[in-house]
Amino acid sequence: MSAPLWQPSSAQVAASNLADFVESLPPDAPRAVGGQEAYDALWRWSVDRPGKFWRAVWDYCGVVGEPGETVLLDGEQMPGARFFPGARLNFAENLLRYRDDRPAIVFRNESGLARELSYAELYGEVARTARALRELGIKPGDRVAGFMPNVPETAIAMLAATSIGAIWSSCSPDFGASGVLDRLGQVAPKVLFTVDSYCYNDKVHDCLGRVRDILDGIPSIERVVVCPYLEADADTGGIERAVTYGEFADNGASSNDFEHLPFDHPVYILFSSGTTGVPKCITHGAGGTLLQHLKEFVLHTDVTREDTVFYFTTCGWMMWNWLMSTLATGATMVLWEGSPFKPEPTAMFDLADEVGITVFGTGAKAISAWEKAGLKPRETHDLSALRAMLSTGSVLAPESFDYVYRDIKTDLCLSSISGGTDIISCFALGCPTLPVWRGELQCRGLGMAVEIRRDDGSVADVGETGELSCAKPFPSMPVKFWNDPDGSKYRAAYFETFPGLWAHGDFAQLTEHGGVVIYGRSDATLNPGGVRIGTAEIYRQVEQLDEVLESVCIGQDWEDDVRVVLFVRLREGLALDDDLVDRIRGKIRANTTPRHVPAKVLQVADIPRTVSGKITELAVRDVVHGRTVKNTDALANPETLELYRDLPELTSA
User: Fold this and answer.
1) Which helix (H) or strand (E) covers residue 58, if one does?
2) What would the pLDDT profile of 200-235 be if each residue is shown by its tens digit?
3) How crowded is residue 74: how many other Cβ atoms within 10 Å of its Cβ?
4) Structure pTM?
């Protein structure tokens, strides 16, 4: 057995929140902390005793509210189980429990704009915005939306809306108007927050022109609030029903009345990627979201008030909603708006040093891009405050683990995490008391009965690949899909594959270390000769080659079977030749199996991705097979699909 890449010291284990939490548990809970055996025992207890576990999380994390007498009702039903059915709480109140001078939000952007808000200042801004919303008649259950960059006003608007019990939903401003209509049009918000413009990669993009189109398509919007961003004196651009944020929140309120509502009262409506049709409106409850996020921040990421937490995200990705819950821990939350490579490729590490980031989150593709760019922050930056790095969005390749420990920092808990919009949280993630093994997510989340299942529904053995599933209810399951009155869309999305069990749609494996390996989305797995192959296994090999910036792999229907087709984007000025094709195939063959070797390797100028940055294999597969891509508005660069249409190389053996 190889050695782990990182191991917490006994002192780190003893000082962890998790160790302290264990001491608070009922007498029948395991008491050992540190190492796989101890964690496995705690995980097993947490899924076998959900009532005791989730009540312990509520108490230890100090949830503000009344828990009620019952923790779990109808716990054998999935869907149908109800957590804390008698509870009353308010989501925003829990995120605003601290009201002192400690920095709550530190904001930076690619152009050098810098702002900070203390917890006291944040509370005041939220109070004024909440009063303004109440004066408009906003009440519990109404929808308030953002067409916003990742700026402090987005957080303020969300907190103000949810303090009333309104439901927050957002799209990042890189969506086109039709993409916004596909999402927000389904939920009919009454208020829309936006900015005049935003900047990405040194280019300024107007927002107000698209807002006019959005208003034409969503008649429910009664008020548009234009927040200043690039220009401090930005106006409404003459838009009907619009006011500036300064005018809107100029009411002198200094306190806020938080509406206490049921545990399952909706707090967020998030949207699926929409690449296979109109996006699903996934509605999450306040209590389940809060409790799950507190568990993940406090127990799995070891966050305290002394931490400074950052995640690179936009307001159109669920990691924004996850990051917002940092506030419930009292830590400092860092927001970045703009390209992660501006003004310099080292921008994110410059930010880490400047503001003293302790927990740094990003996408797996960014880590790969840093390595491709030759960045070695360990040699150029201090990073002394940094103790944990989180990665999600796509599979973090084992070679990226090597890069982090070789070129970023050796004494670091690198936690690859996996879950998604559907659960607004994680099924598998990190743990401060466990070692980091190359290529593995450290553990299954506490309280999450994660299993790998074969196609027939039986539980797979350790080391065997299959469908990632969850066998028992958990608090952050969606409370419903919006506009799905009989729940049929909700049940079809997660419970048809294995009736009574959550099927998440990931192709995965449990490891001998108690960790998890994700091989990609199940609907994108390849099936040559009837053998299922995860696309991540191929990406891992080909993207080690210096010439290849990134790739996308699909299965093409061919002669009553499926053949593997690999598209590669190369460094500028390079052309794919026979030698490089041979090296790509040789690399894949040597490190995987002959079935993984692509029948075709083709060069493309770009690769289609969703607005949140994920490569979309399904869209490429549809184009190659001559099928219509149902919702190109879900893509950040839909024009790239034409690069894959009617390729003569794909009509021959």
Assistant:
1) helix 50-60
2) 999 999 999 999 999 999 999 999 999 999 888 878
3) 12
4) 0.89
